[in-house]
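User: quick one
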Amino acid sequence: NAGVTQTPKFQVLKTGQSMTLQCAQDMNHEYMSWYRQDPGMGLRLIHYSVGAGITDQGEVPNGYNVSRSTTEDFPLRLLSAAPSQTSVYFCASRGGGRRNEQFFGPGTRLTVL
Amino acid sequence: KNQVEQSPQSLIILEGKNCTLQCNYTVSPFSNLRWYKQDTGRGPVSLTIMTFSENTKSNGRYTATLDADTKQSSLHITASQLSDSASYICVVSRSNDYKLSFGAGTTVTVRA
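Assistant: Done. Structure below.
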């Protein structure tokens, strides 16, 4: 049981490039989400999904796309990278019920030059 | 304005000493409050979760308290160890949706 896995761990992009951050979980969780973490700020929700085929925007969705074709995978796409997207990105998953613990992946540190 | 405010922003303590971290929130309607520990370079890991009816929860040397009337929570670390050096994040969940509100965290440094 690997929990939540993310790849890559580190990435450097040039402004305007696109890329996909991968996220997978093996706990059969319905709810998955993407956050970004910036210095001095709490984690901010980018996009989330309550099940395969269902996605919705969080509080900072601009510049990012997601899809959820399977329960296990929830990739995050940066369409045209900007320096403002330099951040640490965390994927998380949670089972049903509001008390259930949210499990976080190890994070992807992205730098956009 | 962030709906979850944590204090202090950072603190340094000597190994073996105790410390208390504070969390004030305005999130409503309230469902539960969680404390996470985040080691450098890693994702957050849950320490405790408390619902409206729970006013204290322990996990080893970590004890969390909740006052839902004043919308305040604290995390007390007893007999600190070097491995307690981390960021501690307070997270509050609303009862009407899945979304969580995160505090900015308190960075704790334990020195020998």
